[in-house]
Amino acid sequence: MAKRKEPKGTTIIEFNHSGIPDDELKPEDFNDHQLAVLKALPPERQAPIRRGCPVSVIDLATGNQMAAFNMHNVAPSELQKKQLGKAVYEAVQRYFQDPEHVKKYEAWKKEKEAESDGGDKA
After folding, report:
1. Residue 115 banded pLDDT, cuts 50, 70, 90
2. Alpha-carbon torsion (33, 36, 39, 42), positive or negative
3. How far is the C-alpha of 61 from the C-alpha of 9, rounded, in Å?
4. What is the pLDDT of residues 2-26, one digit of tens each?
5. Is 67 helix (H, G, I), strand (E, B) or coil?
6. Are 51 and 8 in contact (CB under 8 A)?
7. How would you class 17 by CB atoms within 10 Å of its CB: exposed for 0-12, middle for 13-18, buried for 19 or more?
C-alpha cells in the first residue's frame, strides 16, 4: 500500500465581491504578518490581493488560516443573499419536521423562560 503524502504548501481562497465592482475595491493597510505572507505568494497571486480582492491564505499542512486580506470587501450579491436565506429557511423547516427536534426545542424554550423569570426576580 502506497504511503499517503502529507499536504504541504498553501491554498488561496478568493471570496466573492460581486456587490463591489473591481474598480471600486479598496485594499486594506496590511500589517507586518500579512505582508510576510503576501510576499511569499507568487506575484500573480499577489496582484489581486494588492488590488483589494478579499482572500484567505490557508496552510495545507495544518488547515490553519495564515492570513486574511481585504475581508471588508466581501459583498454577496442579492441573488446570493436570497439563496442563503432560502437554504436556511428550508433547513429550519426540515429540522422541525422531526418530532424529537420539536421536543428538544420546547424543552430549551422552557429552560430559557425559567432563566428569564429567575433573572427578573433577582
Report:
1. confident
2. negative
3. 7
4. 677 777 888 999 888 877 888 889 9
5. strand
6. no
7. buried
